[in-house]
Amino acid sequence: MSDCIIPEIKESEEEIIAIRRHLHANPELSLEEFNTSNLVARQLEGWGYKVTREIGKTGVVGTIAKGQGTKSIGLRADMDALPIFEATDLPWASTVPGKMHACGHDGHTAILLAAAKYIASDACQFNGTVHLIFQPAEEAIGGADLMIKDGLFDRFPCDRIFALHNMPYLPTGKFGFFEGNFMASADTVKITLKGYGGHGAHPERTVDPIVTGAALIMSLQSIVARNVPPGETAVVTVGTFQSGIASNVIPDSAVMELTVRSMKPEIRDLLIRRIQELTDFTARSYGATSEVEIYDSYPVLVNDAEQTAFARQLAVEFFGEDAVLDSVSPSNGSEDFAFMLQQRPGSYFLLGNGVKGEKGGCMVHNPGYDFNDEIITTGASFFARLVENYCR
To answer: Which residues of 51-60 are buried (b: 16+ CB within 10 A; e: fewer)?
Structure first.
């Protein structure tokens, strides 16, 4: 695999690893990536890019053109961290309590910066325009959607667009591609049940939102089992249920939050409709009222078949057949790059971070996770090859 790394990218490896570890030690949450975006912008400006800041509040776009070609390509990396207390004890561990790069966005940013340095150099020959998109708020809020609404593709036209994500449990530096529906839609559903509180010794004088909520939770489990056609992917998970402060007090209200996942828009619509119906019917049957709110919604991520085949063939050509995994399957995880793929054809692919039990093998969103620096030059080299081979 090391023979496939672009030499100029290999030469900058230590510099980029230092940047990655600095980002890891100084994580910023969604839409708080001020220092991160400033670092990215300064690096890009130093390499000769035209830099535009504050796209989607804290997003950065670096643009560079060579030759007279009219083709344009976008490469995207996410920058935000998670509200997690780190438990690694690494020299570059988070210095900010309760904030951590537990998903590898520090590594994604480093990969795109490594590619950026090479793309701007004389060694990289292409004929067209490259837009490097450093996106905020992937973990919450939907930073991709914010950038699009801020005119991303109107201001920075892209014929096609690509992004990657590191993936623990996959062998280090191996690629995973999948055509079509690859990542699930995700909706957060907040349900508020309003009853009538009172003394726990006299429940007959109350409308108990806890009992109502318990009945609703069990009813919600029937949606996937009895409403979704067998063979379709669907998840309805109740993640929180909060109500009451004392054993002898029946509260006025209860609140629960759900995550809802599916691989098809029509199944997503079915899940939301049935949640709303069951909530209304269950609440009324117990004498309560209800309110359903839906937010933090991400669509299904759909990889364009042509662009995915193009990317896969390049990976085989430059890294070999053994570098491309055939066992990659769709995931119930969500990814807001889906918003960008709704606007432009492209592909979102995986890059192995390391198998379980070895370096890079700790799953993302875990306090013990760390991005595997060994894959920076692999990801950067592949991004560069996408540019060179599309913008010929």
So the answer is: bbeebbbbbb
**Type of residue numbered 219:** S
Residues 6+ apart with CB under 8 A from 54: none
Length of the chain: 392
Q: How many CB atoms lie within 10 A of CB 50?
A: 13
Taking residue 80's Cβ as centre, other Cβ atoms within 10 Å add up to 27
Strand order in the sheet with 289-298: 234-242, 253-262, 185-194, 289-298
- pTM strictly above 0.85: yes
3 state SS for 119-162: HHCCCCCCCEEEEEEEECCCCCCCHHHHHHHCCHHHHCCCCEEE
Q: Dihedral of the CA atoms 332, 336, 342, 344 (nearest 10)?
A: -120
Does the pLDDT of residue 380 top 60, yes or no? yes
Residue 58 in this model has a pLDDT that exceeds 60: yes
Q: Among all chains, which residue has been given the structure tokens 């939301």?
A: 272
Burial 332-345 (b: 16+ CB within 10 A, else e): bebbbbbbbbeebb
With b meaning 16 or more CB within 10 Å and e meaning fewer, what string describes 156-178?
bebbbbbbbbbbbebbbbbbbbb
Smallest Cα–Cα separation from 259: which of 302, 295, 209, 300?
Answer: 295
Taking the C-alpha atoms of residue 240 and residue 228, their distance in angstroms, rounded to an integer, is 23
Rounded Cα distance, 188 and 186, in Å: 7
Give the model's confidence band at 392: pLDDT under 50 very low, under 70 low, under 90 confident, else very high: very high
Per-residue confidence band for 140, with pLDDT thresholds at 50, 70 and 90:
confident
* Interatomic CA distance for residues 151 and 147, integer angstroms: 7
180: left (phi over 0), alpha (psi -120 to 50) or beta: left
How far apart (Å, rounded) are the C-alpha atoms in residues 46 and 64?
A: 12
The alpha helices in 227-363, defined as continuous H runs, are: 265-285, 305-319, 337-343
